[in-house]
Amino acid sequence: MSHTHPFTTTAFELPGHRVVKSLGVVRGIIVRSRSIIGNFGASIQSIFGGNITLYTTLCERARDDAFRQMLAHASELGANAVIGIRYDATEIGQGITEVLCYGTAVHVEISQASGASPASLH
Question: What is the DSSP letter of 50?
């Protein structure tokens, strides 16, 4: 199951907060391969059509792992938020895929008009 963090966004700003420091690009990279057993199970599912849940689960896990690595990288830099988050996937070999999650690590503070409090990435 994929989790998100309240101070992460695909946008380049967080409502109610202002960026006070940009800490640079952060990323999480996962390289995954499909197993022979997984390929066989997916082949069976593809006969019946529809969502191939074995591959869906594998992809979702890879994205979640890459996201968590990106958050850890941001935390190491002292960020309390990541903006402009994107995902990319590249097949680097037959059955081997790289999943990249990246964004801009920032330190945000509450805007004068907002009463929210920024959380840490821990």
Answer: S
